[in-house]
Amino acid sequence: CGQCSAHCPTGAIVEKDETATVWSALRDEDKICVVQIAPSVRVTVGEAFGLPPGTNLTKKLYSALRRLGFKAVFDTNFAADVTIVEEASEFVERFAHKRGPLPLITSCCPSWTDHMEKRHYDFIDNFSTAKSPQQMLGVLAKTYYAQKAGVDPSKLFMVSIMPCTAKKYELSRTEEMHASGFADVDVVLTTRELARMLKQSGIEFLALPDAEPDSILGSYSGAGTIFGATGGVMEAAVRTAYHYATGKKLKNVELTAVRGLAGVKEGEIDINGAKVRVAVAHGLANVEQVLERVREARKAGKETPYHFIEVMACPGGCIGGGGQPYGVDNERRMKRIAGLYQDDRDRTVRYSHENPEVVQVYRDFLGKPLSGKAHELLHTRYTARPLYKR
Ligand code: SF4
Q1: Given ligand 1 and candidates 41, 116, 162, 164, which is best to mutate, with the most ligand atoms within 8 Å of its CB?
Q2: What's the ipTM?
Q3: Which of 190, 171, 198 is nearest to 23 (CA)?
């Protein structure tokens, strides 16, 4: 998984190198190559070029990827905003309207979903069915973008730049990853593979002028960018769930209780007079105690200790993923995370549901959150694959 290769002491566990596949696709005139960049990659790729951890290179990455030959450059942060709109809607359905079990558990980390299906399958019904941002961006490119741009979706070749080796496995996780009739994503490159390609190309990456992403899958909110840090998905989801449940804007936009590198973080948010109890765990060992607390409450017939749980397999979240530049420690993790929080503060839009391109995709294509079309394209399912009998 992403976590293993991040921490392999000898560096023996590495990603399957797919840079040659991507070079070949970029040269293939029958393919229209498009690309997306995950939240955390923007604050880590600079390390491969001698810059300090946390340096935000978003706009240079847009520029570099166009020079490599990609016809459109999208941002996974856009799809992180869509994931939040779907997931926050699921949460409000379960919490406010009592339709579905609590706690709701996040599912955008494929190492975690794999682990859950093998070891914690008694929580399958608690999982958010929302696909990860990578998959959502892919399927929206091959449907919505293809229609708007007037291109043949069978020619679109989607490359994802991800922090993570487990994201390579996610592409074929279930048949829903081909919901449009085409693979949501064709190839995943890790941050390290991207750095390798940039060096092979001879482009003077750091000297490039800034550029903008391609609309209509490019704009992002501050909530979308903090997905790359432990606690970020929870913080983003709470910003939008609060609005959906109350019709108001959450004043304290920064949920500091779920920030930082403590293995388990807890917080409480008041929504319409009801207390929402949240927990965030990163590193799979830390999730055990959170799930055990929920199981004990279930057995005793007591109320759930948490309503919403975020889990990321890698310590620190995706900024510490197995495809990131080597040599991560907590100091480096905190610097990478600081780069994402700064990006959040710098955005004029900090709530996923206010991202204008997200508003547009629902207006023009998906209808509303959790609509039939949203379910068909943006959601998935899980299957118990027990390693031992519970
Ligand atoms: Fe991949 Fe992020 Fe999960 Fe790590 S936390 S395995 S980088 S998705």
Answers
A1: 164
A2: 0.99
A3: 198
